[in-house]
């Protein structure tokens, strides 16, 4: 399933582009140099292979540290070679032989919004490959202006730089701007640059201890934002907005806006069992009408920037007036706790709070997780919270193992002990919950079974059958842990590609929502309030079209 996530890539960017999508002759590229420091990526001199590694973060990182020394390692392997950069790009290191390597903590502070070269890697077979670049889909002749990453080689030094390009697309179609073509003689992990935009703030990479089992292993150590200013740009955490995301899946807005990963919609596994109502003793997690709650992320629908407190207040008021009693949030960025919490308190609504987990780590000491938990503990308005969700499709996206997520739940509960004694759960799809390693580790650690269920991704489900499908999935979920079930995301896209019987459109969306409300609306959280036009459309063409405001007659602030 694609993460709702809330996986967020830069607008129009793909990690590995289809060579057939490259623009044919007739497109004109005009290059202009963008202001910013270039970054260096040392080319690998040894064969690169895949490996199994163990990463152990240290509990703390310094906030004002001098440039770190080269990484050290336990004998017998020789020292790893690392390029230290002066902007918060990931540090790329080649570990020449098997062994244990220690990478010291790194802290970088920037004063203004900066676009730099990020590092991305992909494993490819032998042959010619087209990678990188920025991919865009246009519906008419269009001129696109965007930053792209380029590579220049001089002797043994490879320099990656960001340039601003104006790309003229003569007609409707899919175009890849400034892709990189490379030839490899055998299966190889290629590291190549992509644009990344960073807001002002301090970025930190904790000390890492890495065990390498293969020769020539390339290790990319990312830096995570810490202590960013609360401006109009969303803080990058990995969530949430529905971020980012997801891809649980969980796509950010156009540069220079930097946002968290919004969750992507999750494909729901097929169910052959007839639905039967689960025993749900959820208390505040069951409403007395046919629409319990709505997911909410405080991002402007067209740009992905943070909404103001007044805009959030207006949205929460509209959600309340539509008859909802609960709002689900994914993380703490964009002053979510303060702005959404104040509005919920004002209008008499409850909250489902969240700790968003992304690829940077699944430990209480992972910087972005620690930042979220610290904010939750300091916030103090736990009387508003009826449920705390730790991770949004974190197992599905391979951000956490079941054992790691189990430990994270324990640690989060410990941090919040004495302040919050309510229900705690995770949010995964049914097929993840059905795994023995998941149920055996996590059933005992959740108070209610939380799941994301999106019937659109099952091509045998028509809009009119959406509610029956969701009810059937909830019935199966109830038997896994023998606990109450809450659907933490359910919706239907108004745009994108038809998926068999699961057709899209405003009418189809209205029919699906009506079906869900009739079957189980009092036990589900609808996804989501408004369309997120700043997101990439995704493979379904639908990731930006899940807004349900029209279906519930809600006018939003965007």
Automatic annotation (TrEMBL):
Keywords, sorted A to Z: Glycosidase, Hydrolase, Secreted, Signal
Residue ranges with Polar residues bias: 269-289
One example GO MF annotation: glucan endo-1,3-beta-D-glucosidase activity
Biased composition (Pro residues): 65-80
Biased composition (Low complexity): 229-250
Phylogenetic placement of the source organism: Eukaryota, Metazoa, Ecdysozoa, Arthropoda, Hexapoda
Annotated organism of origin: Photinus pyralis
One Gene Ontology term, aspect cellular component: extracellular region
Region spans: Disordered: 57-81, 228-289
Compartments reported by the entry: Secreted
A single BP term in Gene Ontology: cell wall organization
Name by which UniProt lists this protein: Beta-glucosidase
């Amino acid at each position: 399933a694609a993460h709702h996530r809330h996986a967020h890539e830069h607008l129009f960017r793909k990690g590995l582009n289809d060579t057939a999508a490259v623009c044919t002759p007739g497109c004109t590229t005009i290059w202009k140099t963008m202001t910013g420091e270039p970054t260096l990526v040392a080319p690998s001199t040894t064969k690169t292979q895949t490996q199994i590694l163990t990463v152990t973060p240290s509990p703390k990182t310094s906030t004002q540290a001098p440039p770190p020394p080269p990484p050290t390692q336990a004998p017998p392997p020789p020292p790893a070679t690392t390029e230290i950069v002066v902007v918060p790009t990931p540090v790329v290191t080649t570990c020449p032989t098997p062994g244990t390597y220690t990478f010291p903590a790194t802290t970088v502070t920037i004063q203004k919004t900066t676009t730099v070269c990020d590092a991305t890697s992909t494993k490819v077979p032998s042959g010619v490959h087209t990678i990188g670049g920025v991919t865009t889909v246009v519906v008419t002749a269009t001129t696109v202006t965007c930053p792209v990453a380029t590579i220049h080689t001089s002797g043994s030094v490879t320099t990656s730089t960001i340039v601003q390009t104006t790309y003229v697309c003569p007609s409707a179609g899919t175009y890849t701007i400034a892709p990189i073509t490379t030839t490899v003689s055998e299966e190889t992990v290629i590291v190549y640059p992509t644009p990344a935009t960073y807001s002002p703030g301090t970025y930190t990479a904790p000390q890492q201890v890495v065990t390498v089992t293969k020769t020539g292993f390339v290790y990319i150590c990312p830096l995570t934002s810490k202590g960013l200013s609360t401006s109009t740009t969303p803080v990058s955490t990995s969530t949430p907005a529905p971020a980012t995301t997801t891809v649980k899946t969980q796509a950010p807005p156009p540069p220079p806006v930097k946002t968290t990963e919004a969750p992507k919609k999750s494909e729901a596994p097929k169910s052959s069992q007839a639905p039967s109502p689960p025993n749900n003793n959820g208390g505040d997690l069951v409403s007395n009408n046919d629409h319990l709650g709505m997911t909410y992320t405080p991002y402007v629908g067209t740009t992905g920037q943070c909404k103001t407190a007044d805009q959030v207040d207006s949205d929460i008021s509209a959600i309340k007036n539509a008859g909802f009693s609960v709002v689900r949030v994914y993380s703490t960025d964009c002053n979510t706790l303060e702005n959404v919490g104040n509005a919920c308190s004002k209008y008499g609504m409850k909250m489902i709070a969240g700790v968003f987990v992304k690829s940077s780590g699944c430990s209480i000491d992972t910087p972005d997780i620690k930042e979220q938990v610290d904010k939750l503990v300091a916030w103090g308005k736990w009387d508003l919270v009826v449920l705390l969700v730790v991770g949004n499709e974190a197992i599905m996206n391979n951000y956490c193992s079941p054992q790691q997520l189990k430990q994270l739940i324990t640690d989060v509960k410990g941090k919040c002990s004495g302040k919050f004694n309510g229900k705690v759960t995770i949010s995964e799809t049914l097929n993840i919950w059905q795994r023995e390693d998941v149920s055996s580790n996590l059933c005992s650690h959740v108070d209610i079974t939380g799941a994301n269920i999106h019937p659109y991704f099952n091509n045998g489900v028509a809009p009119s059958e959406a509610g029956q499908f969701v009810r059937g999935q909830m019935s199966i979920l109830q038997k896994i842990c023998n606990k109450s079930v809450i659907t933490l995301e359910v919706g239907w896209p108004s745009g994108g590609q038809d998926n068999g019987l699961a057709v899209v459109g405003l009418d189809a969306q209205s029919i699906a929502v009506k079906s869900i409300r009739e079957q189980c609306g009092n036990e589900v959280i609808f996804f989501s309030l408004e369309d997120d036009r700043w997101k990439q459309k995704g493979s379904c063409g639908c990731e930006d079209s899940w807004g349900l405001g029209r279906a519930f007659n809600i006018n939003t602030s965007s």
